[in-house]
Amino acid sequence: LEIHPTQLSDEGEYKCRIVVWDNTGNSTEPSVPISKEARMMLKVNVPPEKVEITHLTSGRNLSLRCKSEGAKPPADILWTKTSPDGVETEIPDLSKTREIEPAGELYDTAEQIFYQLEENEMIAKISCVVRHHNTNTSIYKNITFVSPAIQNALKVTIQRFAEPVLYSSIENQDGQDNKAGLVKISADPGFKVPYNTSVTLKAAAPGVFPEPRYLW
């Protein structure tokens, strides 16, 4: 018996019976039928057909939800984070909630995770890994977050009449137009910029004579 291609309707118990005739070696006696049978249960496994990530962000707080659809048995989900130097680590289970919902004869698996970006994290690549061991299937879905503000302090040095004097150390995490001493820093188009675009930072020292030398 060959089944191709297998469908969910093919799942079930199969029985094979054989019948042999035995006359116990006596040609004058009628043959006696001997019946033997074997049974087996066929399971049809289905890999997930669709994986999607949805997310909400509030500052450095991330809420991500990964959903795997149409698997049998239900798929497993794990979350990983990849550092800028390529090191991948699994995010602990403490911040996860999982749901498994039947969809006909298949199953949808959804898992939600809450993650907070560290203060020094400018970029975070988070992956939802859907694994279906019964069909040896792994599906990766990645999402990358970029910090909306420049996190490192900007130090401006002014040369007046002698050695350089440090007038200000400015951190623009709050997106404000900060001032310290004689120095003013502005950003075009602003202190919050989309990833893979351009930003121009400008330092000014109004009223300083002679014109100072700026060092970034």
Automatic annotation (TrEMBL):
> One Pfam family name from the record?
C2-set_2
Sorted alphabetically, the keyword list is: Disulfide bond
Q: Which gene encodes it?
A: FuHC
Looking at the record's lineage, which domain of life comes first? Eukaryota
What SUPFAM superfamilies has UniProt attached to this entry? Immunoglobulin (SSF48726)
All residue ranges annotated as the Ig-like domain in the record: 48-144
What is the protein name for this chain?
A: Histocompatibility ligand membrane-bound form
Q: Which organism is it from?
A: Botryllus schlosseri
Disulfide bond as a keyword of this entry, yes or no, is: yes
Q: Which PANTHER family match?
A: IG-LIKE DOMAIN-CONTAINING PROTEIN (PTHR45889)
Its ancestry begins with: Eukaryota, Metazoa, Chordata, Tunicata, Ascidiacea
Annotated signal sequence is none
